[in-house]
């Protein structure tokens, strides 16, 4: 039955897109949803049908120009590229930086332009290279036993800014 459900889904829909807030809470929700999908519909990953939409975390405005940044590094790069940072970017500089607390804070047109519009959105396709390794990692990170998760965090915690960048 699971195979027929997956086939019906795959033949009807081209992709599954996960869209969550760009902050830490959104990353946690995304991890839970992806874990669910991997556990119950791994064939979606095998078929290359799982994507993560990447909403911007920052909006930068100066005059009539608007730029979007997806993370802190992108914000710093944007400010440097457009010479928006530094000594002249204080009060009265005409530069506005807004950090979104969540998708609900965006105006509908902003959400469409930055995250939903197929022409302008940023999607990341998720694939699994090694199913057994991915399964083992998910069991360690999301399972009921604390010891494997603690060992993973102790091993990688100092090396990585975010454990989400583990390459599987």
Automatic annotation (TrEMBL):
Residues 1-56 form the Toprim domain. InterPro entries: DNA_gyrase_B_C, Topo_IIA-like_dom_sf, Topo_IIA_B_C, TOPRIM_dom. PROSITE patterns: TOPRIM. One of its GO terms (molecular function) is DNA topoisomerase type II (double strand cut, ATP-hydrolyzing) activity. It catalyses: ATP-dependent breakage, passage and rejoining of double-stranded DNA. The keyword Nucleotide-binding applies. It comes from the Eukaryota. SUPFAM superfamilies: Type II DNA topoisomerase (SSF56719). Keywords: ATP-binding, DNA-binding, Isomerase, Nucleotide-binding, Topoisomerase. One of its GO terms (biological process) is DNA topological change. Belongs to the type II topoisomerase GyrB family. This is Toprim domain-containing protein. The lineage of its organism: Eukaryota, Viridiplantae, Chlorophyta, core chlorophytes, Chlorophyceae.
